[in-house]
Amino acid sequence: MRYFPINLDISGRLCIVIGGGNVAERKVRSLLECNGSVMVISPDLTDGLASIKDAGGLVWENRAYREGDLKEAFLVIAATDDPDVQERVFCEAEQANRLLNVADVPDRCNFILPATVQRGDLSISVSTSGKSPALARRLREEFEDRIGPEYEILLNIMGELRQAVLSRGRPHDENKVLFNRLLHPEIAVWVRDGQWDRIKDHIRNILGAEVSLTTLKRLNSE
User: Fold this and answer.
1) pLDDT at site 1
2) Last residue in a domain, options 147, 171, 196
3) What is the predicted pLDDT for the residue at 210?
4) Mean pLDDT of all residues in the chain?
């Protein structure tokens, strides 16, 4: 495996996108969804990028890329099909040890972007190490069909339960057993079908006491 799987916290960090076309727009939207601070360097912008810029979502440098542009960047995406620009961006990023993705040119990347299914804070990513983006997309579509919105709710419930269990100060091994028991094989189905009382009974049986969960309160009131 060539790439080391990792999730990055880019919140507030400068992410520079070279190019202003449709590919750049998709990358920018993904970066903004993760609260990155985005700068786009390009003489032109798509209508979508222009709208984001007008709303204050990104900084636009209305010009072509120049050496030195990556000086303050945490992460760089080159979304241009100009081989000369790709090469110059690659050389600067390599010299400055910047994270770099050159769209559709794996040999010029030190990280690649997997196909991802998102359900709130739950992310399921598929990577083929750049060998077959089409296969990664196909697998992502299969996961999208199988992993419904109930998993976002389930994750929120499990997150609250984790805090409740950890607050009791039990040993790690005991907590691990509790977490596994709480994650009943059918609990996602119970969430999907709105069986909140069944979920509460299950939690009570495992933990031996009533646990007040914000997520369940909100769902019961809807």
Assistant:
1) 66
2) 147
3) 75
4) 94
Q: Model confidence over 111-132: pLDDT tens digits?
A: 999 999 999 999 999 999 888 9
Q: Are residues 92 and 53 in the same domain?
A: yes
Question: Structural domain tally of the chain?
Answer: 3
127 and 156 inside one domain: no
pTM: 0.83
Closest to 106 (Cα-Cα) out of 74, 75, 129, 81:
129
Closest CA to 21 of 1, 57, 50: 50
Residue 83 identity: P
Of 204, 176, 202, 207, the closest CA to residue 189 belongs to: 202
Residue 145 makes CB contacts below 8 A (sequence gap 6+) with none
> 128: domain range?
114-147
Cβ neighbours for 214, distance < 8 A, ≥ 6 positions apart: 160
